[in-house]
């Protein structure tokens, strides 16, 4: 069974999403500030659960958030937990955490996740 | 004389006001408030770092309000619509002040007061640890953040959470939370 890719356009309150099993690419970009995040993230976490069964040797994860709320923060951790499981099963998982210039809060948020899931993050500052 | 929401609202509106609203707190109102404040911060050419912080803290404050409003009994409905809350964003000296207010059942006060008092005692490092602990250990509730909101606000602003519980009647209080975001928060 092919795992269908996910392509979601961003909105002012939800991020753009690109999950592609053939390319091993997981991308979440933009703003994640909905009142109820579970609704938005559940299909993404379910997709990763499927992908986990037969992942590529290398998965590249790009997270580039401008804003995210605390309601999203737990859902994003759920995404990372799935990636952690893929990593634990001896597959390469590269996590790129992008943050805007001088946005120390976003850098710190990345470090919080990194310390919880124990996969090294590449912290990438976007200089305008 | 008991607590009067209108007088309280007028008082909040002192200073340089970016946005003030009282009424039903809906998703549409939240979206509108975020747009207005984001636009004004840009208009003021506010430093990007501070702008982001104010926006972030506003999102969290509004969603906290949205998720935790207690409705007064039906017989108050003429005066206060359902999901009634108050929001005023203003500029006070070199800070942005985000003031929110909502009715809350008396029995919930102790829990909330203890929680805020506890947060206010924590250092920056302790807030970070608390945030990470809740993030990693507490189940997400149907209300969303599972208690991360206030911790996040305290962490991002670096300021104490100012609050007052105004006695409304035997069963309800009006909870006012003032949050300050300043340059030094960055």
The overall average pLDDT of chain A, rounded, is 95
CATH class of one domain in chain B: Alpha Beta
Distance between the termini of chain B: 42 Å
Proportion in β-strands of chain A: 25-35%
Most extensive interface: A-B, 25 and 29 residues
Number of strands of chain A: 6
One letter per element, helices H and strands E, the order of chain B comes to: HEHHEEHHHEE
CATH topology of chain A: Transcription Regulator spoIIAA
The biggest sheet of chain A amounts to: 6 strands, mixed
Write down the secondary-structure element order of chain A: EEEHEHEHE
Strand arrangement within the widest β-sheet of chain A reads 1-2-3-4-5-6
Largest beta sheet of chain B, briefly?
A: 5 strands, antiparallel
Give the spatial strand order of the biggest sheet of chain B: 1-2-3-5-4
What's the CATH class of chain A, please? Alpha Beta
Radius of gyration based on Cα positions of chain A: 14 Å
Identify the overall geometry of chain A: globular
- In the predicted model, the low-confidence regions of chain A spanning at least 5 consecutive residues are none
Estimate percent helicity of chain A.
25-40%
Q: Structural class of chain B, please? A: alpha+beta
């Amino acid at each position: 069974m092919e795992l269908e890719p996910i392509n979601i356009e961003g909105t002012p309150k939800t991020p753009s999403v690109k999950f592609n099993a053939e390319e091993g690419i997981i991308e979440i970009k933009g703003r994640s500030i909905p009142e109820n995040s579970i609704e938005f993230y559940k299909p993404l976490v379910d997709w990763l659960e499927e992908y986990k069964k037969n992942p590529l040797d290398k998965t590249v994860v790009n997270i580039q958030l401008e804003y995210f709320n605390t309601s999203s923060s737990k859902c994003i951790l759920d995404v990372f937990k799935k990636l952690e499981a893929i990593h634990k099963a001896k597959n390469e998982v590269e996590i790129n955490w992008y943050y805007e210039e001088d946005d120390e809060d976003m850098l710190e948020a990345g470090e919080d996740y990194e310390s919880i899931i124990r996969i090294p993050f590449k912290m990438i500052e976007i200089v305008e | 004389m008991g607590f009067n929401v209108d007088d309280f609202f007028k008082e909040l509106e002192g200073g340089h006001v970016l946005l003030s609203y009282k009424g039903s707190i809906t998703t549409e109102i939240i979206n509108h408030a975020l747009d207005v404040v984001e636009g004004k911060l840009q208009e003021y050419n506010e430093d990007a770092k501070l702008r982001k912080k104010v926006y972030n803290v506003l999102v969290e404050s509004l969603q906290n309000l949205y998720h935790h409003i207690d409705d007064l009994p039906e017989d108050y409905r003429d005066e206060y619509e359902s999901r009634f809350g108050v929001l005023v964003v203003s500029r006070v000296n070199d800070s942005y002040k985000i003031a929110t207010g909502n009715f809350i059942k008396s029995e919930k006060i102790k829990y909330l007061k203890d929680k805020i008092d506890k947060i206010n005692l924590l250092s920056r490092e302790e807030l970070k640890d608390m945030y990470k602990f809740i993030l990693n250990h507490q189940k997400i509730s149907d209300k969303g953040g599972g208690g991360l909101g206030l911790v996040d606000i305290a962490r991002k602003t670096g300021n104490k959470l100012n609050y007052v519980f105004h006695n409304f009647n035997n069963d309800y209080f009006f909870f006012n939370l003032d949050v300050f975001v300043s340059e030094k928060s960055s």
